[in-house]
Amino acid sequence: MTRIGIRGIVLTGSEENLVNQTCTLPLMVYRPESVAPAPAVILCLGGLERGMFESLEWIAASLRDAGFFTVMPKWRDNSPEHDHEDVSLVVDWLENQPNVDSARIGVMGHSRGGNAALRAAALNSRLKAIVTFGAVTNFLQQAEGTAIYAPGRHKKLTEWLGDHVANRNFYEKIQAINYGDRIKQPVLLICGEMDMTAPIEQSVWMREAIMGAGNQDVRLEIMPMMGHYGDVVPGAYGFDSLRAIIIPYFRTRL
After folding, report:
1. In sequence order, what are the residues at sequence separation of 6 or more whose Cβ sits closer than 8 angstroms to the Cβ of residue 234?
2. Architecture of 14-138+175-253 per CATH?
3. Could you tell me which of 129, 147, 137 has the C-alpha nearest to residue 195?
4. Are 109 and 115 in contact (CB under 8 A)?
5. I want to staple 179 with a disulfide (CB 3.0 to 4.6 A). Which of 112, 122, 236, 245 is the partner?
6. pTM here?
7. Span 182-227, pLDDT tens digits
């Protein structure tokens, strides 16, 4: 089993570049064996920088083996401001791939990537299904909450996004919780019971925002004893359990 953070990890996709007038997005591409047009899944990376392909290899290769054309972009820069635009650029790219069924494109994101997936889906109806794992959906709440209980994390967060008081409008602009009323697609929100980076409430509030606007096709899965990176107390990883939920969901929705 692939584990996040282990040196020497082998990526089983092929690295390419998506070049646009404004940016270049490195891509890790996983092509299924079938030559027939396949459904596609865009995987959105987490982190405070441009993202590490290795962090989602555990699901990327498995989606490929299940018949999905799977692609992971790195972000154009460290800031999440343009993440939704980067996802849309990947959708454009997928629509030009001859072995992709452009009517069946889904998106999955982890942490920051979960926020990006939700925000992108709210603004792009070409995305037909959304899955998140450990999504950070309310950056303002994180900044305000960590100021008291986790000053070190608060410092890192505000260095990344700016002061949450002075830059409140920016926080409002980028956080998925403010886009819930525009998400009309099926959504699966997965979170770990022991996730202290993106606590359960971040996904609970997101579900409430989407359902409150009329979309009832929202499912919340809480993974017992699991942390933010798929780690399970006392010392294992729960990637098999996550794959057992994510892959069948995409099969039924795409």
Report:
1. none
2. 3-Layer(aba) Sandwich (3.40)
3. 137
4. yes
5. 122
6. 0.95
7. 999 999 999 999 999 999 999 999 999 999 999 999 999 999 999 9
